[in-house]
Specification:
about 150 residues, mainly alpha, Hypothetical Protein Yqey, Chain: A, domain1, Arc Repressor Mutant, subunit A, 2 domains, about 75% helix, about 0% strand, globular
Length: about 150
């Protein structure tokens, strides 16, 4: 089953069970997917939908940090629950050690020697992990590896 079909089915189930938070979160995700389809001018593949989900998760995490700083625990709880719902659509994430191994292999393959080649390494690593690792985690590890 395509990812978008799974999301739509989950929306139906959430509506039937009257789970308002899940309904609103999935509707938000479907809206983000639709907006991306309009911007790109075509229906999204599963990989592109995963990128939208990752973007939405990152936005929630950023919001959580802001709400914590502002002392808004009610909003922190809501955003945390939305993040958990969205993460259900992502593949199981790689551990930091697995990402480090992939980064090291990629640095050796590309013969990258400095931080000026970070973009090339990042692109290759992100293609290899295919949505199984967050970009900020990969970026941090690549910087560590390429910085003398």
């Amino acid at each position: 089953m395509a990812l978008i079909d799974q999301v739509r089915e989950d929306l139906k189930q959430a509506m039937l069970s009257k789970d308002e938070l899940r309904v609103s979160t999935i509707r938000m995700l479907l809206s983000a997917v639709k907006n991306t389809e309009i911007a790109k001018g075509h229906s999204l593949s599963d990989e592109e939908i995963l990128a939208v989900v990752q973007k939405e998760v990152k936005q929630r995490k950023d919001s959580i940090e802001g709400f914590k700083a502002g002392g808004r625990q009610d909003l922190v709880a809501k955003e945390t629950q939305e993040t958990e719902i969205l993460q259900g659509y992502l593949p199981e994430q790689l551990t930091e050690e697995e990402v480090r191994r992939i980064v090291e292999e990629t640095v050796q393959e590309t013969k990258a020697t400095g931080i000026n080649q970070m973009g090339m390494v990042m692109g290759t690593v992100m293609a290899k992990v295919g949505g199984k690792a967050a970009g900020d985690v990969v970026s941090k590890i690549v910087k560590e590896k390429l910085t003398p």
